[in-house]
Amino acid sequence: QVRLVESGGGLVQPGGSLRLSCVASGSFFSVHTMGWYRQAPGKQRELVATSVGNSPMYADSVRGRFTVSRDNAKNTVYLQMNILKPEDTAVYFCNAVLQLHVTSDLSVYWGQGTQVTVSS
Question: What are the pLDDT digits (tens) for 32-62?
């Protein structure tokens, strides 16, 4: 059974930094994509940053402030968030697209989410 476990959320003042981590565990053949989405109260879940292979993609709202990186040996994705703003407040979800077996299609998995609150 595949699990994604996030860590690193919390409360930070505007202008501060946080680093989120997400580890994929369980049995799977390969990782295609790992990344981060977020959902603020009353809003739809949106893409924050993702790493396809080792190529990063960012939402316009976070480009230049956030950095996504992967440690493929550890099946881990990180999100370094700098110059945080109140509008970054949301539940952040880890997302992974995995191939469970060499002959299987890709499957999408989500973590349970971690709260990030930016407030003075």
Answer: 999 999 999 999 999 999 988 778 999 999 9
Contact 22, 34 (CB under 8 A): yes
Strands (E), 8-82: 10-12, 18-25, 30-39, 46-52, 55-58, 66-71, 76-81
Q: Position of tokens 């981590």?
A: 21
Give residue 101's pLDDT band: very low, low, confident or very high (50, 70, 90).
Answer: confident
Contacts of 33 (CB under 8 A, 6+ apart): 50, 51, 52, 95, 96, 97
